[in-house]
Design a protein that fits this description.
This protein is an alpha+beta fold. The chain contains 8 helices and 5 strands, in the order αααααβαββαββα. The protein has one domain. Strand 4 and strand 5 form a beta hairpin.
Amino acid sequence: MRQRGSSLGSARLAPASKPRRSARPAAPASGGGPRHGFTLIELLVVIAIIAVLAGMLLPALGRAKARAQVAFCQNNERQLMLALIFYAGDHRGLYPPRAQQNRWPTQLQPGYQDVKVLLCPNDPTNRARRATGPATRPPAPDAAPRSFILNGWNDYFQEVLRLPFSAIGGRSIPESAITRPGETIVFGEKVTGSEHFYMDCFEGQGNDVDQIERARHLSGGRHANAGYSNYAFADGSSRLVKRGQLLYPLNLWMVTDYWRTNRVFSR
């Protein structure tokens, strides 16, 4: 009995065995969670989203650039108009006379100085033309790249002064003869490649038909059915005129009431 009790006592005194602990996973070296790369599908989705956003933004940027070119062109025309007003103030109210040399770009230069004012940034001709004279000097105004054309005042010389087209050389028009300055064009945009300095409505079929650019801005080009060009008016303003509204129902290049309504064109 003693031996039996002794074995039981020894069994009670034996320490209980500890349960085994499972091995802990090693922590990542960087201290963060598990990393996952982009899948091919996710990359394609991101690229597609970027392409859609670019497609939405590019037209807006194009329109903003076109509007900036319009404003730049208008500003140049306004500077030419101011130079013309200064000239008339110094010459008893007369606009520059018609000339075969030292034409209006040279006559007005004291009022605008930089020949770059003669340019419209949207005129592609000026990228190809080369000015004469030394490359280190700015070209003479008459030889400088030029986007604008001056009203030749043909109807005034014929209707008021009774002069034929062949006799208008050296003649000037007084600014007082323009009775509707807000509706009479002084400067306009000429077609790409035109070397004309004066818009002569009685020369050939009329320069107001074949030498004037009527859709340089906000359009698909010269042969587009819609578009605008910039014009400077005798009141000192410069603004866009939509194609089709330049020569009809009034010819805005004309000074006299008779020719404003009797020389009109549908386009």
